[in-house]
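Below is a concrete protein record.
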Amino acid sequence: MKNRLSLLICICGFAALALASSQVIDRCRYALDLCMELILPSLFPFFVLSGLLNRLGLPGFLGRLLAGAASRIYGISGAGASALFIGLTGGYPLGAAYIADMERSGAVTAAEGERLLAFCNNSGPAFIIGAVGAGAFHSSAAGFFLYGIHILSALLTGLFFRQKDYCKEIQPVQLDSVYISQALPEAVKQSVASLMNVCGFVMCFTVLVGLLDARGYVSMLCGWAGEHFGLELAFCHAAFTGVLELGSSVGAMAGLNITPLNMALAAGVLGWGGISVHFQTMSVLAGSNIKGALHFAGRLISAVIASLLAFMLSPLFF
């Protein structure tokens, strides 16, 4: 039954592509421009740097350093604590890939990996400060503010998945380090593969939004919301596309003013990540024993917390 439903959806999708081929081509071009001008420049350097830090042993050092605090606050091991650092510096879906690698190597259990996934797979500073702050709002200060909110919401979200005394029997793991001559090529190859994965999903979901927009569904929904709630059309479009795909949502935010409501929107979209990020996460979890249900719950909680914090705190800074 599931296969038949999936087949029916694919056939309908193929028919939609055929009937709106010009819109699909335009959206593909838009997605390519988005990847080339926004996503690749903002993410690639940090992906490489995070890969280097991972391979050169910094997460292992942080794991040993933070083992006590991580166990008391979140009920996770020292090795698990290093995943939060990777997730907050590397961006989607690097945190999830790192957690999956640790589970495969035995550094964390599958159960701990699932709880880590709920709050350690986050957007990175390059994307938030560069793409959202400087790119969409034309303000690096707004980017730094949103990144601070993103960190705080991730830390608070982790408290919802705390399991008392869970990791007392798990010893902190020292991850192997390598020479930079070996680490750099591996980091570059992994970064390129991860970015191609990200850009592929960006294109897929950008086309999906384009197909809906071609039939007027997005414009109708945004028009209705704008009329009934007094919201800008750009705000409504960014909110709708943010449910599906993060990059397109950030592109739709371009030109919005820095207001508490717009900051709350940006923070919420970054915290949620979009359905596209959830698919990216599932792809990097392949081959591990980690399931993604808690990741979905964690992103919802993070989005709500981030939106509330941004709405309340932004008047203090802007």
Notes: The radius of gyration is 20 Å. The longest helix spans residues 21-55.
